[in-house]
Design goal:
The protein has 198 residues and is of the alpha+beta class. It is built from eight helices and seven strands. It has two domains: 114 residues, Alpha-Beta Barrel (ADP-ribosylation fold), CATH 3.20.170; 56 residues, no CATH class. Strands 1-3-7 form a three-stranded antiparallel beta sheet. Strands 2-6 form a two-stranded antiparallel sheet. The protein has a two-stranded antiparallel ribbon with strand order 4-5. The chain is globular and about 50 Å long.
């Protein structure tokens, strides 16, 4: 099967909803969102995530770049829309067709980049140990168990989404390279099929 790589910038809530599907689909659009628009290149997705999402309260003051593969034959039904400069190409998928679009995603959706605004808090829903903790408090809890392999594995299993959305924030705010190596090594042991992209 021929596939095409697409990208999509998303905010915190949408990223969490994607992760809750085991990264297999995008959530339904809200009633005021008539179009789902994946974009055709990473630079455009990163521009939106950084320039727009990080300043937007609805996005949680952060922007994530997702990458995914879709059946190219299916995608041929959508016209490429240019909405600005040479790199600003996207597809317009009517919201009522998103469920069908999701069925043609052939690999898990990957979180490949993240941008955080000044007002980013990093509180993630559906957590237990991290409940009520902002991203910096989460980092303190991670660092407290870095030397205890089983405790770190348990924390990763219970707080998977928080690790995925906040690890780049932690790296910019005190997580050392040495500790990052430990974290990544443990992550691979716990989640063989989920990519922790850094």
């Amino acid at each position: 099967m021929n596939t095409k790589t697409l990208f999509r910038p998303v905010g915190l809530k949408e990223m969490e909803l994607i992760l809750d599907t085991q990264s297999t689909q995008f959530p339904p659009r809200l009633e005021w969102q008539p179009i789902f628009y994946p974009v055709l290149n990473e630079a455009y997705a990163a521009q939106i995530a950084n320039d727009w999402n990080t300043k937007d309260a609805f996005s949680g003051y952060c922007g994530f770049v997702t990458q995914f593969e879709v059946d190219a034959t299916y995608l041929s039904k959508f016209k490429v829309e240019n909405v600005g400069g040479a790199m600003h190409n996207e597809l317009w998928v009517p919201s009522e067709e998103l469920a069908e679009f999701n069925q043609h995603i052939v690999k898990p959706i990957q979180l490949i980049d993240a941008f955080y605004g000044e007002k980013y808090v990093g509180m993630v829903e559906n957590v237990s140990t991290f409940k009520g903790s902002n991203a910096l408090q989460q980092l303190e809890k991670v660092q407290a168990v870095l030397e205890a392999q089983k405790a770190l594995q348990k924390l990763m299993k219970s707080e998977r989404n928080a690790f995925l959305v906040n690890v780049r924030f932690w790296l910019k705010n005190g997580l050392t390279q040495e500790n990052l190596v430990k974290l990544k090594g443990t992550w691979v042991e716990v989640f063989e099929d989920i990519w922790l992209h850094l």
